[in-house]
Specification:
The protein is mostly beta strands. It has a single domain, classed as YVTN repeat-like/Quinoprotein amine dehydrogenase (Methylamine Dehydrogenase, Chain H), CATH 2.130.10.10. It is built from one helix and 35 strands. The strands form eight sheets. The chain has a five-stranded antiparallel β-sheet with strand order 1-14-13-12-11, with no helix packed on it. Strands 3-4-5-6-35 form a five-stranded mixed β-sheet, with no helix packed on it. The protein has a five-stranded mixed β-sheet with strand order 15-16-17-18-22, with no helix packed on it. Strand 19 and strand 20 form a beta hairpin. The radius of gyration is 23 Å and the shape is globular.
Length: about 450
């Protein structure tokens, strides 16, 4: 055997060893994928059965920010409205969730550096309990006056929260009495912005995303045991989009926008169904959907609203984009689709109505203020709330819309929710119930029950 041949073989061996070492290093330092969907540990639980009186997770019962009840007030006074209001100690701008007579919201107390889950009774506003979720992590302290926490989700028996704590993305299950059932990490999380993406539910699973500079993933955790059932890698890059679950184009899908792509996954297994490439460096809003299509809005570096037919497989960028429009896009508020129309709210108050199937623009109305909260469909109106406390009911449909304006004394960043005959609005320092009937107001008392993990 010639010396030249031996040197060539030796080079191949060295290259193979080097590639193997680099692969092992990557696997040991990264967040590995998990495939336990067929494991006995993924046992079936009864599906959550929320009613029209509930708002159990981000974007409501149907996952599209559409209120199921229509008996709510359209006008109220800033200083006097039926219902109640309670002060909220600590920081937070997460939207509450509601099941039955219980309302759940996370609150961060900067003095103690503790994150709590607080339970408020819907009927009276009394704080039933608050449970400490995490304690003393300096990374939770922010310079801003608000801390953008994730909205909890509820299955009728437990409440699930997600939080960034000590370089992990933690999922915590708390029962209706305030007792922590389990607390497990979904995976490593090294984001500089903290966790804002809210969890969602699919059958027996709690689904979360962690879009970060490296090792991004979407994961599903069994909601009774806390075990990671599946975890799938995602494109790297900081992003805050919340996964949305729905039956779209005849199949169950969990869809989330992120750096460079909107991606649909099989919520049972975590396997990607389709990918649509977009130019966004990051995404701050959630997608919305109708029976056949998914809609996403992005702003950086190129603003656009995109409509994607959701029946594809693989890379659908060139085959399933139905329409795009650069005139309408916002970055923070999530769009909402209802009755064949798509409503897009930009941060500067431009509210646009377009035909969902074609992208045809029906109207644009300019609302006053800056907006972070997402619009909500409530009966015959789309409801919008500004950071300075103004709220607007804008008549839905293609005709020139009627607008009803109300005001609260504090700014609104959290998206309001509609449950039963009431609107629940979290302002900077207070939680309001604005009811269609008189409800005895209460004052938060210092003797609230506190439970600690």
């Amino acid at each position: 055997m010639s010396t030249k041949w031996m040197n060539w073989r030796l080079s191949l061996v060295i290259i193979a060893i080097t590639v193997g070492i680099l692969t092992l290093i990557s696997q040991s330092t990264g967040t590995p994928e998990v495939r336990n969907a067929d494991s006995p540990s993924n046992f079936v639980l009864v599906d959550p059965r929320p009613s029209a009186e509930d708002w159990p997770w981000w974007r409501g019962v149907d996952g599209r920010n559409v209120a199921l009840s229509k008996q709510f007030p359209l006008q109220w006074s800033e200083s006097n409205h039926p219902g109640w209001q309670v002060g909220l100690s600590g920081l937070g701008s997460a939207t509450p969730s509601i099941w039955g007579d219980r309302l759940f919201l996370p609150v961060f107390e900067p003095d103690s550096q503790r994150l709590y889950l607080k339970c408020v009774t819907r009927r009276s506003g009394v704080v039933a309990w608050k449970t400490m979720i995490h304690d003393k992590d300096p990374k939770n302290v922010r310079d801003s006056n608000l801390l953008h926490l994730a909205t909890p989700v509820c299955d009728g028996q437990s409440v699930f929260t997600v939080a960034h704590y000590r370089d992990q993305l933690w999922v915590t299950a708390v029962d209706f009495s305030g007792r922590v059932l389990w607390q497990n990490p979904a995976g490593r999380y090294l984001s500089e912005t903290g966790s804002v993406s809210s969890p969602t539910l699919y059958k027996s699973l709690v689904i979360v995303t962690a879009d970060q500079a490296r090792d991004s993933y979407i994961a599903a955790i069994h909601r009774q045991t806390g075990e990671v059932i599946w975890r799938t890698r995602r494109p790297k890059g900081e992003s805050l989009g919340t996964p949305v679950v729905g039956t779209i184009a005849g199949r169950a899908q969990v869809v989330v926008g992120g750096p460079g792509a909107v991606i649909s996954y099989d919520p049972a297994t975590g396997e990607p169904l389709w990918t649509c490439r977009i130019s966004a460096s990051h995404v701050l809003s959630s997608v919305t959907f109708d029976s056949e299509r998914v809609f996403a809005t992005t702003a950086q570096p190129n603003a656009e609203v995109i409509c994607i037919a959701a029946d594809g497989t693989g890379d659908v960028t060139t085959s399933h984009v139905v329409w795009r429009d650069a005139r309408l896009a916002g970055e923070v508020p999530s769009p909402v689709c209802h009755g064949g129309l798509l409503y897009v709210l930009a941060e500067d108050g431009r509210l646009s109505c377009v035909q969902a199937a074609t992208g045809k623009l029906e109207w644009i109305r300019q609302l006053s203020g800056t907006f972070s909260a997402s619009p909500v469909i409530a009966g015959d109106f789309v409801f919008c709330a500004s950071e300075s406390g103004e709220t607007y009911f804008v008549r839905t449909g293609t005709a020139n819309p009627v607008i009803i304006k109300n005001t609260l004394a504090e700014g609104i960043v959290a998206t309001p929710i509609f449950a039963g005959d009431s609107i629940f609005i979290r302002t900077i320092h207070q939680l309001h119930r604005i009811s269609g009937q008189n409800v005895e107001p209460v004052v938060e008392r210092g003797s609230d029950v506190r439970r600690r993990f």
